[in-house]
Design goal:
alpha+beta; two-stranded antiparallel sheet; flat
């Protein structure tokens, strides 16, 4: 995967710590940024992301809500 950065928010509740939010970023070197942008645009136009979400059981409305308590 290469160099990544993760960040998140934890909340302490009656049952202990829980993940409130988590974000993982992947670095893209400047010299390949334009190619990365083009790949991302092509992917979004292809609608393949819909198939990926459907295969793992996510819908756009459910993303970001899976860790709420």
């Amino acid at each position: 995967m290469g160099t990544c950065r993760g960040s998140g928010i934890l909340r302490k509740g009656p049952q202990g710590w829980k993940i409130e939010q988590y974000h993982l970023s992947v670095t893209v070197p400047n010299d390949i940024m334009q190619r990365f942008i083009q790949l991302n645009e092509d992917f979004n136009k292809s609608k393949r992301w819909i198939t990926l979400y459907n295969n793992v059981g996510f819908t756009p409305a459910s993303i970001g809500n899976q860790y709420r308590y």
